[in-house]
């Protein structure tokens, strides 16, 4: 039984019904529809913390999906799972792949910055101050890019940039 038929969550059920109706109405190839079903099942599994199942679905969706924009979101979601599992190198790889296909994916830029910031904090706590500074500078670079794309978001990042002197007015707004 497919995940879409097992959803107990009202929002997931509603999303599934609306998605199924749209797929019947909109012109899409069988391959595009199948890619979407895998993607939808991946989102559902991910929301329930079933990361292995979500990854399986996302990888299947990647095999079928040809649209670069849609592929970027699949790659982004894979990055989210790796990041949630503390596998930051893999997460960064998938976030960068997503950005190669969709330069406007500000949330991928933000998540890259969060990873670099986290690693900077860890390095700072170990008194590796030079490494920490480099990681914080990388975090700032990615946060500035995210904020430039989405200036009404990432308020905490904006505050961090200001308080650490990493704000560059030509990069922010």
What's this, in brief?
The chain has 173 residues and is mostly helical.
Give me the secondary-structure topology.
Blueprint: H1 10-25, H2 30-47, H3 51-64, H4 68-84, H5 88-101, H6 106-125, H7 129-149, H8 155-163, H9 169-172
Helix pairs in contact: 2-3, 3-4, 4-5, 5-6, 6-7
Tell me about this structure.
With 173 residues, this protein is an all-alpha fold. It is built from nine helices and no strands. It has helices spanning 10-25, 30-47, 51-64, 68-84, 88-101, 106-125, 129-149, 155-163, 169-172. The termini are far apart.
What's the assembly state of these chains?
Answer: single chain
How would you sum up the global shape? elongated
Q: What is the string of SSEs from the N terminus onward?
A: HHHHHHHHH
Radius of gyration: 19 Å
The number of helices is 9
Unreliable parts: 169-173
| Helix fraction by DSSP (H/I, runs of at least 4) | over 70%
Number of E-type strands: 0
Strand content: under 5%
For the biggest sheet, the summary is: none
Secondary-structure content class:
mainly alpha
Determine the N-to-C terminus distance: 49 Å
Mean pLDDT: 88
């Amino acid at each position: 039984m497919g995940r879409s038929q097992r959803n107990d969550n009202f929002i997931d059920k509603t999303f599934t019904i609306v998605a199924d109706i749209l797929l019947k109405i909109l012109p899409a190839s069988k391959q595009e529809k199948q890619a979407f079903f895998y993607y939808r099942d991946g989102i559902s599994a991910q929301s329930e913390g079933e990361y292995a199942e979500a990854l399986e679905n996302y990888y299947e969706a990647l095999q079928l999906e040809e649209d670069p924009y849609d592929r970027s979101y699949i790659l982004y979601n894979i990055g989210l799972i790796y990041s949630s599992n503390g596998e930051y190198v893999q997460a960064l790889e998938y976030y960068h792949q997503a950005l190669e296909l969709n330069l406007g994916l500000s949330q991928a830029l933000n998540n890259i910055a969060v990873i670099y910031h986290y690693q900077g904090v860890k390095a700072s706590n170990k008194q590796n101050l030079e490494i920490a500074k480099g990681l914080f500078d990388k975090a700032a670079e990615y946060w500035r890019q995210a904020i430039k794309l989405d200036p009404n978001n990432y308020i905490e990042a904006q505050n961090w940039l200001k308080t650490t002197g990493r704000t560059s007015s030509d990069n922010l707004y």
